[in-house]
TrEMBL record:
Region of interest (Disordered), residue spans: 1-22
Domain EF-hand: 20-55, 56-91
UniProt KW keywords: Calcium, Kinase, Repeat, Transferase, WD repeat
Gene Ontology molecular function: calcium ion binding; kinase activity
Name of the protein: Serine/threonine-protein kinase PkwA
Ranges for the WD repeats: 261-302, 352-386
Highest taxon in the source lineage: Eukaryota
Alphabetized SMART domains for the sequence: EFh, WD40
Length: 519
């Protein structure tokens, strides 16, 4: 048999280049090589990566594995194993298998961890504290929070509590508590919905629909055979994502499995259903964001978009729809990105920088102009989705209305007058008056450029920082009411924080960050 080519030559590396202890590597290799064949396959390498504390997506592991497995045998020996871990343990080496755009985000992550001047380049945004902190009734990690009514939210804990609260009481009190069973991993609910969908960390009986008011189980869903880490309520169906990368669709009435898709090669961290009710965005530890159409059959025919290395070779924690063809994604490269799913190979449309740890959660404002992100270091940040035009959307008129709304109204009136002028019935002077009023309002709204919160590298900066937690913020939900924004955040510190702020406070944050970016 021909001698295998040395993998070290293609990397300019030898097994001695690994930063890990050789004896530790040998022990791990032998422990995982159960059949004593002297070789390991990709699935076994994932286990080894976890044991050695290597944080890298499965997609990146696959790319490195393919390059090291020169003879394409599907397995590697100990020498290749050593070189493999020298590669995946070194961020600079990981960059070699990423696109140029993804490599830039990895540089950002490395600067967070290693650059002592990082804070000068990415100043902290203006801070806002919660108006109320709920922590008396949870006694476990808050896995998910959802608004289910005007001022009423629902929280699910890892130990199986469903707790509803009304913020109108302005006290740490609950409306109702329901015991939904142990090991709750995810939850979805919405105002006027059919019930509360709960996913569990079990291999069987792992997805149920609950009646919160009566504290009873309405339906149990079949089809998933491993722990469920993400779930989503549709109009007539449910979706769930499991530890093994499977997404399952169930009929909400009967509980029967409608269809399954093997979407990912790793744990499905989030599922988001588009407003059209049939396009679905999923994220995973394999580092990808995948969009598919539940009405278009099986993969690959139903595939709409597949964004590889969406978190620069690390886990993607959540994706969120922010437009008909646009998504936000967040992950372990410490960044949030906005993508056009029609151009999956292109760099992101925008990049939002400033977090200093894994970004675990996202929430979009109802009007789509702002969003919030929560991270592993307990921080929450507020951002402008698209800084262009932000000032006109937030600046108020004398009567308290938004300049952007008044501008839209005036422009519509002008078009109507122009049509009447063309028909010989309108007054050209009215067109001129409306045009002057529109131009005046636009000058007020754009006294400074909205792009001031975009730094010289093109990265968008945060408008506000929302402080109140001490551990990972894994879930967020946004609601607007009577000109005020409401954001709730759930964390591993066994609490929910309620933040309230208005557009004027957002504008203050905008002005503060603009000054910092211009210095």
């Amino acid at each position: 048999m021909a001698k295998r080519a040395s993998p070290g030559k293609s990397w300019g590396m030898t097994p001695e280049d690994t930063p890990m202890d050789p004896e530790e590597l040998k022990q791990v290799f032998r422990r995982i090589d159960l059949d004593s064949s002297g070789t390991l396959e990709l699935e076994e390498l994932e286990t080894a990566a976890r044991e050695l504390g290597v944080r890298c997506s499965k997609n990146s592991l696959k790319k490195v594995f393919k390059l090291i497995d020169i003879d394409q045998s599907g397995s590697i020996d100990f020498e290749e194993f050593s070189i493999f871990f020298a590669k995946v343990s070194n961020p600079d080496r990981i960059k070699e298998v990423l696109s140029a755009a993804s490599a830039a985000f990895l540089d950002y992550r490395n600067s967070v961890e290693n650059d002592p001047c990082f804070a000068k380049h990415f100043p902290m945004p203006r801070s806002t504290k919660p108006v109320l902190r709920y922590n008396r009734h949870f006694n476990a990690t808050v896995e998910s929070v959802k608004w289910v009514g005007d001022g009423i939210f629902l929280a699910a804990t890892g130990e199986g509590k469903l707790v509803s609260c009304d913020i109108a009481s302005r006290a740490d009190e609950n409306l109702k508590t329901c015991a939904a069973g142990e090991s709750v991993y995810c939850m979805d609910a919405h105002a006027g919905g059919r019930g509360v969908l709960v996913g569990y960390g079990k291999k069987t009986d792992n997805l149920s629909l609950w009646n919160m008011a009566e504290g009873t189980r309405l339906q149990t869903f079949e089809g998933q055979t491993s722990q469920i880490f993400s779930c989503c309520l549709g109009k007539n169906f449910t979706l769930s994502g499991s530890k093994d990368g499977m997404v399952v669709q169930n009929d909400i009435e009967t509980g029967t499995c409608i269809r399954t898709w093997q979407v990912h090669e790793g744990l499905v961290t989030s599922i988001a259903l588009a407003s059209d009710g049939h396009q679905v965005a999923t994220t995973s530890r394999d580092g990808r964001v995948v969009v598919f159409d539940v009405n278009a059959g099986s993969l690959p025919s139903c595939l709409v978009s597949d964004i590889e290395d969406a978190a620069a070779g690390y886990t993607v924690c959540q994706a969120l729809w922010c437009g008909k063809d646009e998504l936000l994604s967040a992950g372990d490269d410490y960044c949030v990105k906005r993508w056009d799913i029609r151009n999956q190979r292109d760099p992101p449309l925008a990049s939002y920088m400033g977090h200093t740890s894994c970004v675990r959660s996202l929430a979009l404002s109802p009007d789509g102009s702002l969003f919030a992100s929560g991270a592993a270091d307990s921080s929450v940040r507020l951002w402008a989705l698209n800084p262009s035009g932000l000032r006109s959307r937030l600046t108020k008129t004398d009567d308290g209305g938004r300049v952007s709304d008044l501008l839209s109204e005036l422009k519509q009136r002008r078009e109507q007058v122009i049509e009447r002028v063309h028909a010989g019935e309108g007054d050209p002077a009215e067109v001129r008056e409306l045009t002057e009023e529109i131009e005046t309002l636009e000058r007020v709204a754009k006294d400074k450029t909205d792009e001031e919160i975009i730094d010289s590298a093109g990265y968008v900066r945060a408008l506000l920082g929302l402080s109140g937690h001490s551990l990972t913020v894994g879930t967020l939900a946004w609601q607007d009411c009577a000109g005020k924004h409401r954001l709730i955040s759930g964390a591993q510190d066994e609490s929910v924080c309620l933040f309230e702020f208005n557009d004027d406070e957002v504008m203050e944050g905008f002005s503060t960050m603009s000054r910092q970016c211009s210095q």
